[in-house]
Amino acid sequence: MLPDVSLMPPGREDIQRMADWLADNEVNSFWYGRGDDGIALHHGYSPQRVIGSSEDEWKRIFEDHDRRIYAIYTQDGQHIGEGQLVIDWPLQEAQIFILIGRKDLWHHHYGTMGLILLLDEAYNTFELHRVWADIPEYNEHALQMFRQIGFVLEGHLRKTHPKDGEWYDSLAMGLLTDEYVRRRSRVMGGSA
């Protein structure tokens, strides 16, 4: 049985939690490490820098038509992670990102359910044709989760992810809307 989660617009407290999670070495080890300045790398914005941003800057980041950022919440109202869709409207596709920052909830299918809700947004709300992910080779858990949902290996990218002074390969994985429609009910029923 998959846990109930929801996607919400992020607030400043959510972004503070993201900064705290990314400051944790174990969480960061599955994400993208730190830049030369020691600040955790993240997609689309720096949680550490945006916490105190102006309202205009906040709106520029979190109300972007092409980058949809969501806070992931449990049914009982606990913020546990973040998901993003970076949409290329002319191609009707999006790159997807997901991070469960609450380590105590890892391996309990919260990431899987968050991923399903992000895909529902991509395919049902935005009527996209394809969603893809660029997953670092060192994140075996993410690779397994994306495969379970039905993502297919589309390519091997060489030395694309900098992490802690090293470069790592990644796997490009994609999922088409008709594939998702066929897989979703099986995944939700636990028989994937």
Structure, described:
The chain is an alpha+beta fold. It has a single domain, classed as 3-Layer(aba) Sandwich (Aminopeptidase), CATH 3.40.630.30. The chain has helices spanning 12-23, 25-30, 47-50, 55-62, 110-125, 140-149, 177-188; strands spanning 5-8, 67-74, 79-88, 93-100, 130-136, 152-163, 166-176. Helix 5 (110-125) runs antiparallel to helix 7. The longest helix has 16 residues, at 110-125. The mean pLDDT is 94.
Number of domains: 1
Give the CA-CA distance, first to last residue.
12 Å
What percentage of the residues does DSSP assign to strands (E)? 25-35%
Q: What is the number of helices? A: 7
Rg, rounded, reads 16 Å
Strand order of the largest sheet: 1-2-3-4-5-7-6
Count of individual beta strands: 7
Quote the average pLDDT.
Answer: 94
**H/E series:** EHHHHEEEHEHEEH
Main beta-sheet strand count, sense and barrel state: 7 strands, mixed
Instruction: Write down the CATH topology.
Output: Aminopeptidase
Structural class: alpha+beta
Secondary-structure blueprint of this entry?
Layout: E1 5-8, H1 12-23, H2 25-30, H3 47-50, H4 55-62, E2 67-74, E3 79-88, E4 93-100, H5 110-125, E5 130-136, H6 140-149, E6 152-163, E7 166-176, H7 177-188
Parallel strand pairs: 4-5
Antiparallel strand pairs: 1-2, 2-3, 3-4, 5-7, 6-7
Helix pairs in contact: 5-7
